[in-house]
Specification:
The complex is a heterodimer.
Chain A: H1 4-18, H2 21-28, E1 32-37, E2 40-45, H3 48-69, E3 75-80, H4 82-85, H5 131-142, E4 151-155, H6 161-175, E5 181-185, H7 186-198, H8 202-210, E6 214-218, H9 227-242, E7 246-251, H10 263-269, E8 273-277, H11 282-295, H12 302-311, H13 316-333, H14 339-349, H15 358-368, H16 373-377, H17 383-400, H18 404-410, H19 416-432, H20 434-448
Helix pairs in contact in A: 1-3, 5-6, 7-8, 11-12, 11-13, 12-14, 15-17, 17-19, 18-19
Chain B: E1 2-6, H1 7-20, E2 32-38, E3 41-47, E4 51-58, E5 60-63, E6 65-70, H2 71-80, E7 86-92, E8 95-99, E9 104-108, E10 127-130, H3 131-142, E11 156-162, E12 165-171, E13 175-182, E14 191-195, H4 196-206, E15 212-217, E16 221-226, E17 229-234, E18 253-258, H5 259-271, E19 278-284, E20 289-296, E21 300-305, E22 309-312, E23 315-320, H6 321-325, E24 335-340, E25 347-351, E26 357-361
Antiparallel strand pairs in B: 1-5, 1-7, 2-3, 2-6, 3-4, 4-17, 7-8, 8-9, 10-15, 11-12, 11-14, 12-13, 13-26, 15-16, 16-17, 18-22, 18-24, 19-20, 19-23, 20-21, 24-25, 25-26
Helix pairs in contact in B: 1-2, 3-4
Classes of the chains: A alpha/beta, B alpha+beta.
Amino acid sequence: MIDYKQLWQSVLVEIELGVSKANFTTWFKDTKIVKEDGGVIVLSVPNAFVKEWLLERYHNTILKSLRALESSVHSVEYVVNKEESRRREERSTINHLGMSELPIPEITVNKDDNLNPRYTFETFVIGPFNELAHAAAQAVIKNPGALYNPLFIYGSTGHGKTHLMQAIGNHIKKTSPSKKVYYMTSERFCQDCMNALQFQKMTSFKEKYRKYDVLIMDDVQFFTDKQKFQEELFHLFNSLYDNNKQIILSSDKNPHFIAGLEERLKSRFSAGMVIDIPPPDEESRIAIITKKATNQGINLSQEVVDYLAHTVNGNIRDLEGTLNTLIMHSQLKNKEVSLADVRNFVKTNAKPKRTVAVKDIVKIVSDFYSIEEDSIYEKTRRKEVIRPRQIIMYLLREDFNISYPSIGQKLGGRDHTTVIHSCEKVKNDLKEDLSLSQEIGQIRNLLIV
Amino acid sequence: MKIECIKDRIMEAVGRAEKVSGRNPTLPILSGLYLEAKKNELIIRATNLDLGLSTSLSVKVIEEGSVVVPAQILNQFLNSLSKEKTIKINLKGQTLHVATDKTETSIKTLNTEDFPIIPEIKDEESFSLPARDLVLGLKSVLYAAAVGSMKPELSSIYLGYEDDHLIFAATDSFRLAEKKIRTKKTPNFKYVLIPQKNAGEIVRIFDSVDEDISLTIEENQIAFRGGEIYLTSRIIDGVFPDYKQIIPKEATSKVIVLKQDLVSSLKTALIFSDSLNQLHLTISPSEKLFEIESKNNTVGENVYAVEAIIEGDDLTINVNHRYLTDCFQSIPSDTVNLSFSGQTRPIVVTGLEDKTFMYLTMPMNKS
């Protein structure tokens, strides 16, 4: 793959030699290569004037320089960069002191389909961590109801599940307006169902949801232990599925690990495509920060972006929150965000990295397997307790590097040899047992949050 | 290049173009006007790389050619001539010679090669409206747009369509203005956001035009064609706030007052207003009283009772003088209607029996 940045930089250096400084800054500032497709280089330019000018005056020079450096290039196209046209304008000088703002709604949620128009693919940042999920979403868009039905997306909070699901909805709505799309949370579904039961309007309730072509349901883990609602969901699912209507679901864990969910639902949920969105890697975090900052019309220096991406771990929501606060600060002080500011800010405000307490891990794991927390510490050898206990030991050792004796001591005064044995056992089992490794992956996800 | 033309006509065209030309120290060519003599007309172009203008006038062309001259100099020079009727323009080498019966002038020129190209949008699918409608619509709401804002949507003018009316709207999030203008045709676009700064220029340029103007919209640009003028501006890519929701549906207090009375009382109040331009309004239907009070600790204070028809509940409310006064220029009727719905809700200003214009402003916090 060609390194666009470097390629363009070399071209610019060459062009700069041939033109005056004023001309160079006017016409070549804020230009960059955005895409290369079969020898066609696409250049992004800040406005239509620059586009005309480059096309008319510099087209040949650009093409020649590009070719000299990269022989596969055979033509150049120009596009006007929309984000650049949203660039920050000079700040207002009117005295707004004491004025309250009009309660202008941000972007509003459409009442017919519950979709928030802000969630689109254009604003969705794709990185290695979510490209699979994105690809699946694209497949669903091309062929709703046929290929991956249901599409089940799971991942921890703030990893972009809702954004992705709503983007699918918004896209389908845009490309085929005749299709009825509906987004809701599971909580809303339960509420509706309860009201219908209460006022004996089950028939109209059933009617309402069965007419949709694309049904998007967020956070299905809320169905846990709600038998009646699960039954309704089951019937709804079947009726939509049989009519080839697309169903998109999300949850914080793999359907198989949602405790208190009926087997028949679990198996139906996993029938289509089950996709995990893991936490974003650092590269993606950089991309996300840059995009959010540009959308807000703020320029952040590369080092600030890198620092933020490196220090603010965890989910995208945290990242956005930190970024928003930073922007707010810079607006208040009316100056650019410097690295020192960010350092200071992150140090005082960011969520401290959690030092994990053994108790928390025990709680998470025992919740995961729906067993009593206390039973982990007891001397019981019941099978359903042994496995989780071993997993706890394994995690404590592998992920948190706690010594064998102290693990044994903390888990009800066990001998360190028991702990060693357990860890080895899990390690060995992991090699063969695929579902075990999935389970552990899930638990690790839960631990990160 | 060699031409001969009526002074007043070229002066008008140059004046129009001069305002568009840039003041860009890094690229001096932008402060120039591009003049091109071709067949029997003179084409004048100007741009600041945000807005581009091209206008033409018929002249007697003796020799075709083109030149770039400093806009300000040419404009000032033409304006300084009073009695001359015709002028002769002649390019000799790098200098432009302008001659009248009495004066002989030469102006240094700039390199035509460097002058930017003005993006041309093909007028295949356009929507046309009378120039005065466009100007009136923009003018009515222009002042409500944010001058510079983090949100480009707010520093732009919304132009949309709804139920046989063109909708012009602008808001800086403290106040909002909306103007509806009836149209028989349905536009071929849903809506467009024009940068506030450029909208001001559009108003100025088309103010003196009587013909219809055709609008053509491309992905990033909008073009206006009318008479001999072609004007293109960048447009903002964004979504204008859905302001319909924030318009209060029911008013709890209403004041109907003569526009002239209100404007002059506000003028008096301004003298005594404080640094925040705060005005204190008292609306008391029970005592049939509508009072405007302003107070400045260093100057003094003033209370002005305005004759008005007052309905609804008693209310005292603080407003920003500037934000209230701005809207009166756009209200066509001689009587205005102020609707209040509580101390913290927006105030709605409309003309009595006028449904085309509406203005919303937020009250000030009690301090």
